[in-house]
Amino acid sequence: MSNTRARWAIPRRTFLGAACAAALSSRAWARNARTPRILLRSSWQTVNIGDIAHTPGVLALIEKHLPEAEVRLWPSKLDNGVDQLLLERFPRLQIVASADDLKAAFDECDLLLHGSGPFLVAERDVVRWSEGTGKPYGVFGITFSERNYTTKPLAPEAIAKTIDVLSAARFVYFRDSVSLELAKEKGCTSPVMEFGPDGAFATDLRDDRRADEFLRQHELERGKFLCCIPRLRYTPYWTIPSRKTSFDEVKHAHNEEYKERDHAPLREAIVAVVRETDMKVLLCPEDQTQMSIGKELLLDRLPADVQARVAWRPDYWLTAEARSTFLRSAGLFGHEMHSPIMCIGGGVPAIVCRWSEQTSKGIMWRDIGLGDWLFDMDQPDEVARIVPTVLSLAKDPAAAREKAARAQAFVETRQRAMTDTLAQQLSSA
Question: Whole-model pTM?
Fold first, then answer.
């Protein structure tokens, strides 16, 4: 265990105490014949399989550790078939779909749980719940920053307001250590403030049929290919018609400036893997903008002999099919975060490349013991290690899986602590 991970280890007495408290809470609910009810505020968007994954991850944790609980989902966005995806996996789930549903949830639920996200996404709704009901709320796995998730600094009064909301929470779990320390520095006083991994680690959605069919069509064998995900520094949402986002000339120019520099190491890694091992490579997306990016900056610029052993996915997919595909791979590398999260959640190795325009969420890789699989694209010495690291994963997949499994076990321990805290708060509520 690395020094970073050791900071998050749970003392045995504390862990057993929390587990016993959860068990006692379960017995109390049984005696009272009263189902504990959670209002989950989550599901921010569906154009990104990672944003989709937040919700089923938290639902799976609750199902596993608090099976008595009833969950009502208060979503921001549930289109593209994601509602059916969730209901197939969680048939007991109730989705808040109207003002009447929301009123009933406010009246009947015991606690509001804000799901994972790049910040306290639904801050206004948390305040609305607290002021309207007087009931408790908690937060699972967010990033906290002094800027929003582009680059604009937040006003001091906005930061102070968020700190006030977090301080009034019964518990706040931050998905990276930088966020946790910053919140403390800014004066957050919630009684429970700890490192809590992103809910997407616990996602267990699968669509094996579609994954197997895709692999068959592209002649990819289980355990004999790596996944690679490209990304521009700023997501060009203006290229997704359904988003109706205005073209951003400044962000576009920034993307153009860095796109070749950022993707050259990925191409070099693909070439090395194909020429030095028997592995193939699958270029695939995490969001709806990345299929064309993969073709332009990776596939089309590869040597012909390498191209022949590289598959490219031309269309977007949903989280279940993507995760089933990742689970059949030997590992993943690229510029995204939540596909690697889902990989580690399933024991699959994953390498993350990040840059300064992103929030501190990437630091969670260090927090879970995978610091040498995290690369800063703005540091030349780190960029120089990307190709040999990807190549080592391809050449010794067994060792890489052992490393991924250790991180997976650590994440599961932390997430069990999160649900134990939730159980205690439900019992007291």
Answer: 0.92
How many other C-beta atoms are found inside a 10 Å radius of the C-beta of residue 163? Answer: 20
CB 330 within 8 A of CB 225: yes
Q: Which residues contact 378 (CB under 8 A, 6 or more apart)?
A: 355, 356
Q: Closest by alpha carbon to 54, among 63, 67, 66, 41?
A: 41
Report the pLDDT averaged over residues 29-48.
84
What CA–CA distance (Å, rounded) separates 259 from 46? Answer: 25
Query: Which helix (DSSP H) or strand (DSSP E) does residue 174 occupy?
Result: strand 171-174
Q: Per residue in 359-418, pLDDT tens?
A: 899 999 999 999 999 999 999 999 999 999 999 999 999 999 999 999 999 999 999 999
User: What spatial distance separates the first Cα and last Cα of the chain, rounded to whole Å?
Assistant: 36
CB 72 within 8 A of CB 95: yes
d(CA 173, CA 414): 10
Using alpha carbons only, what angle is made at residue 194 by residues 95 and 110, rounded to the nearest 5 degrees? 35
Of all residues in the chain, what percent carry a pLDDT higher than 90?
Answer: 88
- The answer to whether 94 and 73 are in contact (CB under 8 A) is yes
